[in-house]
Amino acid sequence: MEKLLQVTDLKTFFYTHDGTLPAVDGVSFHINAGETLGLVGESGSGKSITALSLLRLIPDPGKIVSGEIRYAGENLLEKNDLEMRKIRGNKISMIFQEPMTSLNPVFTIGYQIREVLKLHQGLTKKAAWEKAIELLHSVGFAMPEQRVDNYPHQLSGGMRQRAMIAIALSCRPGLLIADEPTTALDMTIQAQILDILKELREKTQMSILLITHDLGVVSEIADRVIVMYAGKIVEMASVEKLFQDPKHPYAKGLLQSMPRIYDKRDRLHVINGVIPRPTDYPEGCRFHPRCDRAQAICAKKEPPLENIGPDRQVRCWLHARS
User: Fold this and answer.
1) Per-residue pLDDT for 322 more than 60?
2) To 10 degrees, what angle do helices 187-204 and 157-169 make?
3) Among candidates 3, 5, 12, 24, which has minimal Cα distance to 75?
4) If you average pLDDT over residues 122-139, what whole number do you get?
5) Residue 131 near residue 111, CB atoms below 8 Å
6) Which pTM does this prediction carry?
């Protein structure tokens, strides 16, 4: 399959008074054209910083230290600011976790969609307005002709998320980055948002990078999944293989922690401990202090990310070949 995005050895560090924080530490992956890739892990794993790195939106004191981010063959780290502004929202769009912090509260939804269309597509005011109504209809707005004049505070959480999707898709991007798009939404609205993303992917053939801590969401929409822990990829596999046979103890623990309708256990599985702060990453495997299968080598030497099958990788001494 054609690789739309290729990320190689990406490192994004934050330089603070407490020291250097390796938020994303040597991450490599790709996204195929028309594919949905899930990126999962606990809060603090480096998922959102990975996404922001792709768009070069890392806030100070953060910095992309090294690596390559190639979109359609072009290295985004070699682009200047003007070139990146033409890419953001046009070729690569992002849906942020909380719409109320991303939507401008003093402008209507229609105005915000219209401005994106005028900037990137060169549409007239009238054509952009008509397109805004069409986009709101495509993401499930009832009476979009009226809703187009609403301000963000006049919409429910689910409707605000739909508006964010409409803005993100206004220029028909090749890649959509969705950062926790269903967080804080009830289950019914969450299912509707996922259905919208699946339907739009099928219609437009865009690729999606879905960032979430919810493996249930990943199982609904993703083709492949990456599991991150403490700034590193610990497992990469198709959704089917990961759910059927997780190899890394952390991935296995996440799956065992999922509630199931017919589960008769009194208590859900819990992964002991908490994810370490970037200033406190342990020697060796970063997961070993929480791992119930840790060996002596785990505390001394970091395992490599190795191929263990077709398009499947794991970072664990239990499966290392060397």
Assistant:
1) no
2) 10
3) 5
4) 90
5) no
6) 0.91
